[in-house]
Amino acid sequence: MLKKKKKEDEQTSVDTNEQLSDDSQTVSDAILEEKEQQIQEEISAEERLKAELAQANDKYLRLYAEFDNFRRRTSKERIELLQTAGKEVITSLLPVLDDFERALKAMETATDVVPVKEGVALVQNKLNHILSSKGLKPMEAKGQVFDADLHEGITSIPAGDDLKGKVVDELEKGYYLNDKVVRFAKVVVGN
Known about the structure:
Order of helices and strands: HHHEEEEEE
Number of domains: 3
Low-confidence stretches: none
Mean pLDDT: 85
Number of strands: 6
Largest sheet: 3 strands, antiparallel
Strand content: 15-25%
Distance between the termini: 146 Å
Number of helices: 3
Radius of gyration: 49 Å
Helix content: 55-70%
């Protein structure tokens, strides 16, 4: 009976060892599969990141090229604008130039001065009207307090107390273009 018992124990031990080796094989297979799956996930994540990087680089290059084209186009438009900025004013002044030519021809044969003066006054009014429609306004300086931001003092003369620091005479008119000084008035200041 002992022999039989010993044989049964050996058989159980062999079965247990076989079962343990089968279990350990299953566990190691599962671990290997899990590691392979992790490696595949890492490779796919790396490929996805590479694709995203390539897409971002492509987007950056396109945006840079678009900005460069925009910069060139606006620079070209700015140059064209500067070259033709005065075109509108010049074309509106051409009729005044024509009127002056007619006035010069009329002065050559004129015997009476009064109609010539009236013609020149009409041309001047026409010119003033065109320039004022473009935003040009004359500056009123005579009798005003001297302001270095608006007036250019040419000389000063002794004046009474009521004219001290004020513009006594205007040698050359000053002008505003859309409320910005385009020419300072040349004035004589009372001292």
